[in-house]
Amino acid sequence: MTTGSDIRRARFVVSYRGTAFRGAAESPGVRTVIGELRAACEQILGQPIEFTLAGRTDAGVHALGQVISCDLPDAVDPSDLAHRLSRMCAPDIAVRSGDWAPDDFNARFSASSRSYRYHVWNAPEGNPLLHELTWHVAQPLDLDLMNEAAQAVVGQHDFSSFCRAPDPAPDGTPLSLVRTVISANWTRGDPSHLVMFDIVGMAFCHQMVRSLAGTMVDIGSGRRSLHDMSTILDGKDRQLAGRVAPPQGLILMKVGYERDRGGGASQ
Known about the structure:
Blueprint: E1 7-16, H1 33-45, E2 52-53, E3 62-73, H2 78-89, E4 93-100, E5 111-122, E6 135-137, H3 143-151, E7 155-158, E8 178-188, E9 194-201, H4 208-220, H5 227-235, E10 250-257
Parallel strand pairs: 3-10, 5-6
Antiparallel strand pairs: 1-3, 1-4, 2-3, 5-9, 5-10, 7-8, 8-9
Helix pairs in contact: 1-2, 3-4
């Protein structure tokens, strides 16, 4: 945190249409969520602002309850700033709320859980109105099998088979891909062609949710057997898993925080 009695930690809840961006985190030369927010914030405040994301969503991935934190002069009203940022960044970004947080609050490291939802449009024909929010799967899906597969990943596991391999630590030590999944389940929505995968975990590695969704869809469509799920998970080999589901079906729904770490869940 920037030092000085006139600086405080702020917390914002942000929604965005992921298909409009090349990811959430700032990257030179491409349009990103943080790049847009930084430019708008600097235009309003006249000074550079550094943001921290709760989750670094990939290009095409949406968010309903992304959380960001930053340091601001205490003369700034975070709620008013949220409204002004929303007006400047519409229609692709909405800053849904802004408030002051504890000085040690960090959107990423203070988070206790992250909730994602993946949408599948399961019908012979696609739905043009939901094209940017769903993965079209024409083959009938067996949700009972998919839910059995989902239960196999609940708990603490090494998800190496379902994650893009990260770069090693500066000293060459491989980074752990052990993660804890709190809950995972598939449901049919209204209309029944809309199938949803909800998963909650403490943290997720790169492409983990989309890889899990892709493999479970393969099981539900009969391309793979239910037994394959535990075999892939135990194998700890990225080559064993199925296809990675496309990004546009995924939404970061909310981020959870302990009450003494900046409040409850984003909504």
